[in-house]
Amino acid sequence: MNEIERNLHDAMEVVRNVVFDPKLLPGGGAAEMAISMGLSRAGLKVEGVQQIPFLAVGQAMEVIPRTLAQNCGVNVIRTVTQLRAKHASHYDECERTGEYKPCNWGINGITGDLVDMEEYGIWEPFSVKVQTIKTAIESACMILRIDDIVSGSKKSQM
């Protein structure tokens, strides 16, 4: 009963979020892969050490599609590579035509197939996705600060 109550509460919170901020993003890891592709491409335009955070965060954004593929029991590397290729070809086409359309390709959480999330009808609240990404970046910054403090204290003890 407690689990049912918690799930119902979570569902009502999602509805509340959508009512207050009625923006949706495609599910199935499509939004994360789109962010990953954007950051990776932006990182290639930057030179030197400044390129590393772009590429690292871009790679980290692929955790959601990778986890979805793993939970489905499909070949994770093959599936994520195919999804990355779909997004890359989509954005290459957008650059050629000069007309930007979002790429909605993601992973079907049951079969592991690549599907168009718009056609499949899987959407996630924008506000939840933004908060998740902000929290992840803030956590990474905290870890980096802690590492700086620890490494600085080790140097001062020597």
Q: How would the blueprint of this fold be written?
A:
Elements: H1 2-20, E1 24-26, H2 30-44, H3 51-60, H4 63-72, H5 76-97, E2 105-107, E3 114-116, H6 117-120, E4 123-125, H7 126-157
Antiparallel strand pairs: 1-4, 2-3
Walkthrough of the structure:
With 158 residues, the protein is mainly α. The chain has one domain (2-125): GroEL-like equatorial domain (GROEL, domain 1, Orthogonal Bundle), CATH 1.10.560. Helix content is 71%, strand content 8%. It has helices at residues 2-20, 30-44, 51-60, 63-72, 76-97, 117-120, 126-157; strands spanning 24-26, 105-107, 114-116, 123-125. It has a two-stranded antiparallel sheet with strand order 1-4. Helix 2 (30-44) crosses helix 5 (76-97) and helix 4 crosses helix 5. It is globular and about 55 Å long.
Task: Supply the key terms.
158 residues, GROEL, domain 1, two-stranded antiparallel ribbon
Indicate the CATH class. Answer: Mainly Alpha
Overall number of strands: 4
- Architecture, CATH level 2? Orthogonal Bundle
Give the strand line-up of the largest sheet. 1-4
Rg (C-alpha, Å): 19 Å
Low-confidence stretches: none
Measured as a percent range, the helix fraction is over 70%
- The coarse overall form would be globular
pLDDT averaged residue by residue: 88
Helix/strand/pairing class, anyone? Answer: mainly alpha
Provide the succession of SSEs.
Answer: HEHHHHEEHEH
In DSSP terms (H or I, runs of 4 or more residues), the helix count works out at 7
Distance between the termini: 57 Å
Tell me the strand percentage band: 5-15%
- CATH topology name: GROEL, domain 1
According to CATH, the homologous superfamily is: GroEL-like equatorial domain
Number of domains: 1
Q: Report the biggest beta sheet as strand number plus sense, adding barrel if it closes.
A: 2 strands, antiparallel
